[in-house]
Structures are given as C-alpha cells and as structure tokens.
Amino acid sequence: MDFLRPASWEEALAAKAEHPTAVPIAGGTDVMVEINFDHRRPEHLLDLNRIGELSEWQTGPDTVRLGASVPYSAIMENLRTELPGLALASHTVASPQIRNRGGVGGNLGTASPAGDAHPALLAAGAEVEAESVRGTRMIPIDAFYTGVKRNALAPDELIRAVHIKKADGPQQFSKVGTRNAMVIAVCAFGLALHPGTRTVRTGIGSAAPTPVRAEAAEEFLNAALDEGGFWENGKIITPSVAKQFAQLASGACSPIDDVRGTAAYRRHAVGVMARRTLGWTWEQYRDTGRTLEGAA
Amino acid sequence: MRVNFTVNGRKQEVDDVWEGESLLYVLRERMGFPGSKNACEQGECGSCTVRLDGVPVCSCLVAAGQAEGRQVVTVEGLADYARHREDAHPGTGCATGACGTPLGTARSRQAGDGQGTEELSPIQQAFIDAGAVQCGFCTPGLLVAADELLETQPSPSDQDIREALSGNLCRCTGYEKILDAVRLAAARQEEAVR
Ligand SMILES: Cc1cc2nc3c(=O)[nH]c(=O)nc-3n(C[C@H](O)[C@H](O)[C@H](O)COP(=O)(O)OP(=O)(O)OC[C@H]3O[C@@H](n4cnc5c(N)ncnc54)[C@H](O)[C@@H]3O)c2cc1C
Ligand code: FES
Ligand code: FES
C-alpha cells in the first residue's frame, strides 16, 4: 500500500489522475473501518487532510460553498442559520469524536442510503463540485446518487465542495434509531420550506437503494398549498392535506427488511416523519417566516 | 513508512509503519503508549479517544500517516496537559495543544518509565474520588473526552456532559458515577477559579 499525501488540491487531482483506484481518505470514519476489518486493501490511500481549503466554507448570496472535509461539528457550530437542515442532520451523526472528523464529502463519497447528510442536501437543494485534471463539473444532488453506495463521480474525480442553497425558510430533519447517539438511521426524513419559490422539498434516507426525494408528495403538497393560498394566509395546513402528503411520502420508499427494521416499519415511519416535519416547519413559518419575509 | 509527530509534548519518529495502520495501533504497539484502549476498531466505543491537534478523535479511525506533523495527547499525557493549561492559560485552555510551550517541560510520561506516581489531572482524581472506575477499560477514553469538555465548557449542564460523553461506552458502571465524576471535577474547577 502507498500513502499519498498531496499538499495542495492540484497535487491531489494529479495523484488521482495517475492512480484512479486510489482511495481518498478525509475523516477516515468510513475508510478506516473498512481497512481495520480488512474489507478493503487499496493500493493507494490518498490523504486529503493536508489540503486546508477542503475544511473551509464560503457563504455567498444564495449558497454556501461547503468544503468537502468541513467536519460535522463545524457545520453544527457555524452554519446553523444558513443550513439548518444539514446542521440538525449533522448533530445526529454518531458521536462528538466522529463528528470532529467526518464530513459531507465523505458521506457523499460513501453514498450510503443511510448517510444522514443526504436527506438534508436533497431537501435544501445542492450541487456537488466535482473536479479532475480534466476540469470541473457541477453535479445536481438529485443526479449524484446512482445506486446502493454508488455515486456519479468518475474514477479520476474528487469532490472539492458542495454548494448548498441557503435556507429561505424553516427546515427540519428527523431520524429514527434506537438511541440518540451512535445510530445508523433506520430511516430519516428531511424537509425544507422554500417560501421564495413557494415550494417544499424533501429527502428520504435509508428507505430506498439510494437517498431519494418524495417527488409525488412534493408535487401534491405544492399544488395544495398554492390552491389554498396557504403561503399567503399562513393558515394551518388542512389535516387531510398533511395526511395525503404523508401517504405519498411513504409511497416514495422502496425499503428492505434488514437488522435495523422491516420494510413495512420504514414505510410507516417515513410517513409519520413527513407529517411531523411538515407540521414543525409550517408552525415555524406561521410564527416567523411570513413576517421575516415581509420585512426583507 | 516513517511518521513524525508529537505525542504528549515530545517529538517522536516511528519507522516501519504500515500505510493502512491506525494511529491507535502505532501508539499502542509501536510506541508503547498502551493507555488508549482498543476495543472495537470501528469508532463505536471511544476507548481509543485522543486529542489530535486539540480535537478529541477516535485514534482507531485516524490513519497513522494522517498524524504526520501533528500533536497528539493521550491519557498518559493528560496530567501534564492539564497542568500546562493551568500554568500557561489559567482559566481558559490551550485548545490546540500546540501553543509552543513544551508540555510539562519534557517530563516524560511514556509508559515504562516507572514513574506512575506523579500528580494526576483533576479529572483523573475526580474519577477516582467518585468511584467512576471499575474494570477501567473505558476510563482512558472517557478521561480524554471529559477533560476536553471541562476545557471548553467549564460549567457543563448534565445535558452537556451526556452529549460530550455520548461517544464513549462503559460496560461496568452504568454511567452514573462517571457523570458524578465530571460534575465533581467541574465543581472543583469552579472552586479553584473563585
Ligand atoms: C461509529 C460510527 C458511527 C457512524 N454514524 C453515522 C451516522 O449516524 N450517520 C452517518 O451519516 N454516517 C455515520 N457514520 C459514517 C461516517 O462517519 C460518515 O459517512 C462520514 O460522513 C464520512 O466522512 P469521512 O470524512 O470520515 O469519510 P472517509 O472515511 O474519509 O471517506 C468516506 C468515503 O468518501 C470518499 N471521499 C472522502 N472525501 C472525498 C472527496 N473529497 N472526494 C471524493 N471522495 C471522497 C472516500 O474515498 C471514501 O470512499 C458513522 C461511522 C462510524 C465509524
Ligand atoms: S477502539 Fe476506537 S472507538 Fe472503539
Ligand atoms: S469501567 Fe469497565 S467498561 Fe467502564
């Protein structure tokens, strides 16, 4: 095994081009488990820790450009306002020790359907900045997850950053597990209200081969909110609308039975989380969203 | 490969490190720092917790090569680390552990020097006084995590303590005495500041 330690981003891209099978290692919280248990014996490890810019973020007018290696603890501490959904999701990852090392780049690299960043990214709206010596491309988050633990990266590409839409309304993240800490999601749900565009976006974790949006549920809800003038009048969402939304969210799942839960339970729980996160965010929108928006 | 890094304030050079090896393995098996424990090798138990440039991490999930040029504090160096914090940064803390003052002025706490009788850090003393140690396997990781909590949050709430220690498993104590120990250390720390 070779341990490659590029000192700059350009060196990292060159190394990845030269050794496309090299395994990048950032926080190591996925990679080292696989190596410790001999599930993986890569020829090259490509250490990204020396590339300082990967741990930095920039806040623009509409998006946050989040460096691939920004640890979850930094997201929780510094980006709660701009990225509330992702900050909530970050807080549910593992433990302080893991959150001090692991980040969104690694979560995307692994692309596990149970990764907690994914529902938040799908709900907020995001693009992955992937780069190789051939150039840079922006991959929409909806097109990033291509299969169970598969993503849209080419062998010579690395993730440099993720561009995430800044919250323009309330966001929530909900996760089912056996305890608060150190839990891989049985299933998870992210929801973001986007009052600017009068839309609601969602993300489902651990209930399909890849993280997915509940698209039919979103479409139904967007139409119902529009028709009822809910965004303007700020009325409580009709229970039948919330119920239908929850059912459609359940329907967006294609879960499996495994040690963490049954498919039927996951479908049920996703519906419950969809209804609850909608209730929480809408309550918040009614309280603050409309006045804030009016003042802006 | 060769790895150079600082352990408990002392520069170290380690040879023949396998590229896939963890920092935990290097500390325990190549350098003779058996304080950090190896229980799960998958980040679940926290018994391998060390400070890496001041940040608590599971050393079983840090590749040895990633420690190159960095500062590591293990439970063996915790007393010196705490003393240094009090001397050089009273009331606050040296968050990075890399402020330039040699830790404990080169007092070696490397295992094998037989000098296990020196003063303990306040958190270590509190663990003993509160009866928070049974088999002791989880203790080193908990001490490193709890010490960092008290450095960053001198008066933690119970919720803060639970959160800070949520990555450390103990199979013996039922955690109550561990929470007691952290409360005790926090109270003593407040007393000292007053
Ligand atoms: C005890 C424990 C509990 C956990 N609990 C959770 C949990 O609750 N929720 C959750 O979502 N995850 C959890 N995880 C998984 C893991 O912590 C996350 O997936 C984390 O986001 C990985 O980030 P990392 O930087 O450590 O990735 P690494 O392990 O360094 O890398 C992960 C993958 O991404 C690739 N990669 C990393 N950076 C890049 C890049 N810049 N470009 C391209 N590829 C890259 C790597 O090659 C590798 O394939 C847990 C892990 C452990 C050990
Ligand atoms: S041995 Fe590292 S967390 Fe258990
Ligand atoms: S005292 Fe035995 S595991 Fe904690």
Kindly describe this structure:
- Chain A: This is CO/xanthine dehydrogenase FAD-binding subunit.
- Chain A: It comes from Streptomyces clavifer.
- Chain A: It holds the Pfam family CO_deh_flav_C.
- Chain A: Keywords: FAD, Flavoprotein, Oxidoreductase.
- Chain A: Residues 1-169 form the FAD-binding PCMH-type domain.
- Chain B: InterPro entries: 2Fe-2S-bd, 2Fe-2S-bd_dom_sf, 2Fe-2S_ferredoxin-like_sf, 2Fe-2S_ferredoxin-type, 2Fe2S_fd_BS, Beta-grasp_dom_sf, Diverse_Oxidoreductases.
- The complex is a heterodimer of chains A (296) and B (194).
- Chain A is of the alpha+beta class and 296 residues long.
- Among the domains of chain A are: 1-49, Uridine Diphospho-n-acetylenolpyruvylglucosamine Reductase, domain 2 (2-Layer Sandwich); 171-285, 2-Layer Sandwich (Enolase-like, domain 1), CATH 3.30.390.
- Helix content of chain A is 38%, strand content 22%.
- Chain A has helices at residues 9-18, 31-36, 72-78, 84-91, 96-99, 104-110, 117-124, 215-227, 230-233, 239-251, 263-295; strands at residues 2-4, 23-25, 44-47, 57-59, 63-67, 126-132, 135-140, 145-147, 150-151, 158-165, 171-176, 187-194, 199-205.
- In chain A, the strands form four sheets. Chain A has a five-stranded antiparallel β-sheet.
- Chain A is globular and about 60 Å long.
- The relative contact order of chain A is 0.11.
- Chain B folds into two domains: 3-73, Beta-grasp domain (Ubiquitin-like (UB roll), Roll), CATH 3.10.20; 76-193, [2Fe-2S]-binding domain (DNA polymerase, domain 1), CATH 1.10.150.120.
- Chain B is of the alpha+beta class and 194 residues long.
- The model of chain B is unreliable at 100-116 (pLDDT under 50).
- In chain B, β3 and β4 form a beta hairpin.
- Chain B contains six helices and five strands.
- Chain B has a five-stranded mixed β-sheet with strand order 2-1-5-3-4, with helices on both faces.
- In chain B, α3 (122-130) packs across α6.
- The chains are: A alpha+beta (296), B alpha+beta (194).
- The structure holds flavin-adenine dinucleotide (FAD) and FE2/S2 (inorganic) cluster (2 copies).
- One FE2/S2 (inorganic) cluster is lined by residues 38-41, 43-48, 58, 60 of chain B.
- One FE2/S2 (inorganic) cluster binds at residues 38-41, 43-48, 58, 60 of chain B.
